[in-house]
Design goal:
Elements: H1 3-14, E1 36-40, E2 43-46, E3 51-54, H2 69-79, H3 90-102, E4 108-112, H4 115-130, E5 134-138, H5 155-159, H6 170-173, E6 176-179, H7 184-194, E7 198-203, H8 219-230, E8 233-237, H9 249-254, E9 260-263, E10 274-278, H10 280-283, H11 302-315, H12 320-341, E11 347-351, E12 354-358, H13 368-372, H14 376-388, E13 391-392, E14 401-402, H15 409-424
Parallel strand pairs: 3-13, 5-6, 5-7, 7-8, 8-9
Antiparallel strand pairs: 1-2, 2-3, 4-10, 9-10, 11-12, 12-14
The structure holds 4'-deoxy-4'-aminopyridoxal-5'-phosphate.
């Protein structure tokens, strides 16, 4: 038994499923989750000292690779000054200003501790601002695990076959209308029926929780115009895409301005952080300025702010996103070549530093139904083959993969060589 196996055995005695977040348990792909002890650049090191090229990046935050020196230095400096004050700090102001500069649709921003808190608070704000109860989301999109949003959810909920979680009151779930991603017909239909009752549309502007599904041309534009027509708010959940697909997020990449934006992952540089923000007029409804309540003991934590600010400053250097996008394109083209040489039906989707791998005969995968039609068993074999070869992919077919700036030629070549061997055996 290796150390991961013995740790997993022990973990299961004390922690439900042995993990603190469900997808980590390898339930979808089978086998024992790998326990890690350190990370550096593009690599993870497990408790048995095996190295892996990492395409999970802590599920998104590690856009610059693990242990970026600027972020480590900022955190070390901050720790010496105190761990938490529960009172305002200068670094929060600097962080808020930086976020509003990078994402201009955010005129004001409130820091929270996770993506779940960000989306939950944004939904409450949209409801409080509009005085309406209904919200629209899309099947296969995941916005964290708050009650209103755990309806036909993606990511782990989808992986484990519980997109509608027990424990969410039906009376609340009935206010969540779930439509088809990339399908404006379903949106027009819903709005023509109950548009005046809809507080907001929340959408992943690139869906990353049913693998990786970019928006088809016209989809985000269509959402913007239907919201304008009915006085509903458009919320871009950029917890995953923010600062990743472009410095200004998907809204910059696709040039669409949402009313509210939610952020997480990269904004904390690896520390637990989320944020929501948007139009001043809307954000002024949040307490203490307005009546919509939202709060947090550790919100704006100085260490988290230091990590996040160092991250955003480092990302603001010219050319970072171009480099990451080029790395993604190089890798996915290489993977398609290896698949084709091995006679494996395979395609990829990608936007900037996120991408998806699909084992399928289909010519494109743009819809939830097309995602569901892919060969998940084949992905599971590929996953384990790659794991064995020292490449760590997300342990579930429904997750996007993440590139980082630290993925150098050696890491990418290792991945492609591994894929060549694994694809040959699929
Ligand atoms: N929104 C999106 C788009 C996400 O991908 C996630 C997490 N994967 C969340 C919200 C929830 O964030 P957290 O896990 O930090 O609560």
């Amino acid at each position: 038994m290796n150390r991961s196996e013995s740790l997993f055995n022990e973990a299961q005695r004390y922690i439900p499923g042995g993990v603190n977040s469900p997808v980590r348990a390898f339930k979808a792909v089978g086998g024992t989750p790998v326990f890690f002890k350190k990370a550096q650049g593009a690599y993870l090191y497990d408790v048995d000292d095996k190295a892996y090229v990492d395409y999970v990046g802590s599920w998104g935050p590690m856009l610059l690779g693990h242990n970026h020196p600027d972020i480590l230095a900022a955190v070390k400096e901050s720790i010496e000054l105190g761990l938490s004050f529960g009172a305002p700090t200068a670094i929060e102001v600097e962080m808020a200003r930086k976020v509003c500069e990078l994402v201009p649709s955010m005129e004001m921003v409130r820091m929270v501790n996770s993506g779940t808190e960000a989306t939950m608070s944004a939904i409450r704000l949209a409801r409080g601002f509009t005085g309406r109860d209904k919200i629209v989301k899309f099947e296969g999109c995941y916005h964290g695990h708050s009650d209103s949003l755990l309806v036909k959810a993606g990511s782990g909920a989808l992986t484990l076959g519980i997109p509608n979680s027990p424990g969410v009151p039906a009376a609340l779930a009935e206010h969540t209308i779930t439509l088809n991603y990339n399908d404006m017909d379903s949106v027009h239909q819903a709005f023509s029926e109950v548009g005046e009752q809809i507080a907001c549309i929340i959408v992943e502007p690139v869906a990353g929780n049913m693998n990786c599904i970019p928006p088809v041309p016209g989809f985000l534009e269509g959402l913007r115009s239907v919201c304008d027509q009915y006085g509903s708010l458009l919320i871009f959940d950029e917890v995953m895409t923010g600062f990743r697909v472009a410095l200004g997020g998907a809204q910059q990449h696709y040039n669409i301005q949402p009313d509210l934006t939610t952020l997480g992952k990269i904004i904390g540089g690896g520390m637990p952080v989320g944020a929501f923000g948007g139009r001043r007029e809307v954000m002024q409804h949040i307490a203490p300025l307005g009546p919509v309540y939202q709060a947090g003991t550790l919100s704006g934590n100085p260490i988290a702010m230091s990590a996040g600010l160092a991250m955003l400053n480092a990302l603001s250097a010219p050319g970072i996103h171009e480099q990451i996008t080029a790395k993604t394109a190089y890798l996915t083209a290489g993977l398609r070549e290896r698949a084709s040489a091995a006679g494996v039906a395979f395609l990829t989707n990608e936007v900037g530093g996120m991408f998806g791998l699909f084992f399928t005969e289909q010519q494109q995968v743009n819809r939830y139904s097309e995602v569901m039609a892919c060969d998940k068993e084949r992905f599971n074999h590929f996953f384990h083959g790659m794991l064995n070869e020292g490449v760590y992919l997300a342990p579930a077919f429904y997750e996007a993969c993440f590139m980082s700036l630290a993925h150098d030629d050696q890491a990418l070549q290792h991945t492609l060589d591994a894929a060549e061997r694994v694809m040959a055996k699929l």
